[in-house]
Write a structure and sequence with these properties.
rod-shaped, single chain, 14 helices
Length: 703
Amino acid sequence: METPPPAPAPVDAQKRRKRRILRNILLGIVAVIVAIWLVLYITKGRFLKHPFERVVGSLTHRTLTVRGDFQLYFAPFRIKLYAENFTLSNPDWASRPNLFQADKLDTRIAPLSLLFGKRRLYWLDLVNGAVDLEWNAAHSANTWTFSNKKGGKPLEFPRIDVATVTGTTVRYLDPRMRVLADLKVADIRSVDATIGRAVGLTGKGRLRETPFTVTAQLLSPDATANRGQNKLVARARAAGNIIEVAGTLPSIADVENVPLAVTARGANLSTLLGVIDVAIPNTRTYKLRAQLIKQGDEYAFTHLRGFAGRTDLAGKLTITNGERIHLDSVLTTKSLDIIDAAPFIGFNPDIVETRGAVAAAAATGAAPQRLLPDGNLPVATMQIFDADLKWTIGTVKSRNLPISNIDLTLDLERGRLALSPLTFSMARGNVASDVIFDTRARPSAVSYDIRLAPTPLGRLLKGYGLTEAGTTGTVKGRIKLDGRGDSIHDSLASSRGRIAFVLPSGALSVRNVQLAELDIGTFAQRMFQGKLDEPVQINCGLIGFTVRGGVAAADPILIDTRKNVIVGRGGFSFRNEAVDLAFRADSKKFSLFAGQSPVGVGGMFAAPKLSVISKDLLARVGSGLGLALVATPVAGILAFVDVGDAKSTACGPVLSGATAAAQRTTKGQPRDDVGHGTTAKAEDGKTSDAERKGQRKKFLGIF
């Protein structure tokens, strides 16, 4: 009798049961998925319209609305989304209601790309899309970052295999930069992630208060469609300037820390920087190129090269767009054309070159025949931005001024402009200066402090057509003036201070000195002896002026040579640029035929006049003629004889730049021939009523 097989173990039965349950669950899930797919496919998922609006709105913290037809289903394994009159709202702080809207949005999406890796669209058909990209005023959020946290992410696009995009517009607004741009994107048709040609955009906008136009092309649209590198070129026009930008972006809207090649050109560089409310002197035609890297609020222009007018420029510039715009620049110039420097004192360089300095001064509002510019500083603009500049210049192209090795440090902070220090070489001498325009005071408080180190006089005068041979003297001096005014003219017209130039021991050509002394006898004697180029030794000299209320009075003009003493009296006015000076020379030794009469210098800064025939000289001529008629012709010469009683000068006070009251003879006696620091031209320093009235008209412009 056979033994029946043992019954299956209860454990095996349980395993089979679990497998059946798991299989049934999986089959159920598949059945549900198939059912859902079938329902969605048959109905096109139109019933999901409102749930879709709620879910997407909740995830993005925005309001999503579809006012037309809506479809959402698998076709067959790709998600198909179709929406008409589609809108996605902006945050409440935005200036426009919608971030995105389109008449038609038809796309097929790779399902797994929504969870992993790059988002991918197999197909996109977009009609009349409009995108509004904005930053908030604090620059802490933007419209395309769907988060309540501070900070905005770069704008990113999905990979698109096949696309047809028509009628798309983009609006960009950045309140901090005060930029508004309205752009129109050219129609795009791509197949297999290949567009095949450059994609362009055109538009217009406003940067601060300046309108601009822009055209751009995406030279690598195929890479862009695959979220690769984006080669972009753009050209903008604003305020008569053309700016070109080219570079490769990691994403289509990401310029952070990306090197961009920038070129700018135009008729006047000041109009370009004026777009961002930065004031610089006018320039002539310019062209500059640089590499731009944006990092946060900083825009760094490095490897800067180019020219403005006939002046070369190189260096770097950083613009910080913070609470106040700040410019930090380091510039180097090999050669500066003096015409290009005219705007630094308020002149139009084109007028200076074609019509001269007087016409340029008139263009600033100055009266006829004036040299000092009368154009006001841009006070309002100077008070809304800050700047630091370090500028070195090799040589200056000038017919008259031998200037080189300029080193300028500029600091502008909240309306206080300091050119300190400003140093340069002139005729192998050095000039150091500190000039301050403080526009915080009304009117501006202006300070000029210009110091000239010992400079060869011969080379300095050579630029003005005078001989250098035989001249070994030097000159040093200082101009220290303080005034009030918003223009160079106004600040000098109200200034107080002192001007002093000292001539230490040296030699000057006899041709220059003897004529200045009007010692005709000595000059003729030298001429017949062939010794006109023999130098005359200067013991010491001082050309000093004390300035009060914009009127400079000789205080004193005193030059002591080996054989003569030259004094000057009178003054000039910064108010109307009138000059009224008289120079006279007395001989230390006998001279047979000396004019011994003042040589007058009058006129204006722009057109000085030399008056050799003075009343004193006419009186001597009359006396000489009288003696010749009454006595003998030889007696007529007696009126021109200089007995040589001039008192030698103590050089200590002269070399220290002291005023007239401190001047002494070599015997320690006060000098009585240098005036009293007033504009009087008489030897005793007193002004007659007629002279006072004449100078009042001349210096103050009172008629």
